Amino acid sequence: MRFLGKIARWFDDRLKLGPFLRETALHPVPRRSASWWYVFGSAALVLLTLQIATGVLLSLVYVPDAGQAYNSLLALDHNVAFGWFLRALHGWGADFMVAVVLVHMAQVFLFGAYKYPRELTWMGGVFLLALTLAMAFTGQVLRFDQDAYWGLGIGASIMGRVPLIGAAMVHLMLGGPIIAGAALSRFFALHVFVLPGLLAAFVGLHLLLVLKLGINEWPMPGRIVRRESYLQEYEDLLHSEGVPFFPHAVWKDLIFAAAIVAAVAGCAAILGPFGPRGVPDPSLIDASPRPDFFFLWLFAMLALLPPAIETPILLIGPPLVIGALLVLPFWAGEGEKSWRRRPVAVLSLTLIAVSLAALTHLAFHAPWSPVMDAWKAAPIPRSDLRDRSPLELKGALVLQNMQCRNCHSLGGVGGHRGPALDAVASRLTKDQLIRQVIQGGGNMPAYGKNISPAEVTALVAYLETLRPKGGPPAREAALQDIQRSKADALKR
Amino acid sequence: MSGDKELTRRVFLMKAAVFVSAALAATTAVPIIGYLASPLRRLGKKLKWVSLGPVENFPSGRTRLASFQSPNGEPWDGLTDRTACWVRRVDESTFQVFAINCAHLGCPVRWFEQSQLFMCPCHGGVYYADGSRASGPPPRGLFEYPWRVELGRLMIHAGQLPTLSTEA
């Protein structure tokens, strides 16, 4: 022990880091800030360390070559001892890291920690969030499978929407005119050199600022932040109820970080690595690309935005969001910190969280995507075929053969792009059905050119039988009006 | 007085050093920027005529999947320089060759012979047999490659990923 101490002293005589380390470990924090609410930042740092370690380990085997990357992923999964586990750790670690960074940001926002004098800490944090998301996207590309290939296609298509310099942006992003080896090489460079370097720099700045300015005090309703008096008040608070970071607060950070790492390892061990899903061969077109979990909300938004405003929102949205986050500490740099007195802040955060969750949930089911094989793989429920005439049964065949089921469900099976057809006859009259099939409309293609009159007759005859037992068929609204006015006239 | 003079010389040397270093750094940056911008040199120039095979492969009135090797491929591209496209032979002498990429966000569209529709698996874009937009989010119809028939082979002018600003 004494020998170890001697070695430590030998190094410290040269490095002279002792006072700095002591100051870091023992810097006072307000007693109430040594709280379970203040553990997310350090957990994100621990996850970043895990990502760096597993990333370096994966790079021992992974080959960043468009022709071989997929094979090297398979080798990691099946040939290299624990290769699958390392991939799973890295993949799940990424998901957890995005989650923890978001929770950390939400907590900092709710606790008003971005206010004076911690504006720069918050702004650095905004860049750290952007970098984390950029790491998530570039990482998904390095898992070079069909999702990665078509994900690059989606990224390039978004770039292609930039006015004037769109073509240049596409070629710069892909490193050439097509999605190929050059694209993988530059995303590898981004994921492994550029973004981690920036992350390290911003994490350093973030930590330095936390040390220099002190951790945010527990927000109390009525304790107002003012530029003139805040620093003195914080100083006084540390004097009256400050405790050293080590050991009063650090044990909670350690336990939470350990729990998070255990959760990552548990998910990795039980649920395994992500993908790879399908060889990245663009001539295999039976792909249905899906982004990773943290971009599902974006996938949903791209399907749901009205086409007319899609491009402006895609191009102006991200700078607006980042700009708003950067401006926040200047716009609301003083005043109340407590969420109890900041209803707008609480409501905004709730709105954002609920929107993201709802979009993510929708994207899991993707009701806007046609179910490509429903027309041959989803049988019509038996009850919808019983007691039908030959013409109606012929119509049921037309319904299947014309791929209607790809977008319309029966008995809950099939696509959900269009409305379910289970009770269509109680909504549309015969004439309306014929018109809808032939002319389309309301986001349905017109079938007029591709379907014979005999097929329309059979199809509509079948569709007219689709209504609840005993329920009335739909009637022309105008007809009902005429009948009602006739009845009224008779009464009079 | 002499102190001031010395200070001035130091300041001058400092400024000169900064200027020289900045000039050197800027000179070095020129090739670096040129290197980074090198993908732009191919902009719009590298499209070539590639063959999709004999015209007999494409029966009249039908739409068939074809694939070709991108003229801009590199040996290290693996399978990614292969590209698929849909060939519609309208009649004996007229073709339409559609890019596989949806005009919305580039996902691969699939052809359904019975209903004569192209459907996209990502966000539900749908196109008619002639490539025009039928429904869903795409802002336009499918991208089309220029084509010609040469010595009995169907050729298309291709070589870049079609997007709204880089047409096929």
Characterization of this structure:
The complex is a heterodimer of chains A (492) and B (168). Chain A has 492 residues and is mainly alpha-helical. In chain A, helix 7 packs antiparallel against helix 8. The mean pLDDT of chain A is 92. Chain A is globular. Chain A contains 20 helices and four strands. The termini of chain A are far apart. Chain B has 168 residues and is of the alpha+beta class. Chain B has two domains: 2-36; 45-158, Rieske [2Fe-2S] iron-sulphur domain (Rieske Iron-sulfur Protein, 3-layer Sandwich), CATH 2.102.10.10. Chains A and B meet through helix 7, helix 8, helix 13 and helix 14 of A and strand 3 of B.
Helices, strands, pairings?
The complex is a heterodimer of chains A (492) and B (168).
Chain A: H1 2-15, H2 18-26, E1 28-30, H3 40-58, H4 69-78, H5 83-110, H6 119-142, H7 146-159, H8 166-174, H9 181-213, E2 224-225, H10 230-241, E3 242-244, H11 245-248, H12 250-271, H13 296-304, H14 307-331, E4 335-336, H15 343-365, H16 374-377, H17 390-401, H18 430-439, H19 453-463, H20 477-491
Antiparallel strand pairs in A: 1-3, 2-4
Helix pairs in contact in A: 3-5, 3-12, 4-5, 5-6, 5-12, 6-9, 6-14, 7-8, 13-15, 17-19, 18-19
Chain B: H1 2-36, E1 48-54, E2 63-69, E3 82-91, E4 94-99, E5 110-112, E6 117-119, E7 126-128, E8 133-135, E9 144-145, E10 147-150, E11 153-158
Antiparallel strand pairs in B: 1-11, 2-3, 3-4, 4-9, 5-6, 6-7, 7-8, 10-11
| Topology pattern of chain B, helix = H, strand = E | HEEEEEEEEEEE
**Structural class by secondary-structure content of chain A:** mainly alpha
What name does the CATH topology of the largest domain in chain A carry? Cytochrome Bc1 Complex, Chain C
CATH class group of the largest domain in chain B: Mainly Beta
Spatial strand sequence of the major β-sheet of chain B: 2-3-4-9
- Taking all Cα atoms into account, the compactness measure Rg of chain A is 30 Å
**In the CATH scheme, what's the topology name of the largest domain in chain B?**
Rieske Iron-sulfur Protein
**Care to count the β-strands of chain B?**
11
Task: Find the structural class of chain B using helix and strand composition.
Answer: alpha+beta
**Largest interface here, residues on each chain?**
A-B, 69 and 58 residues
Largest sheet of chain A: 2 strands, antiparallel
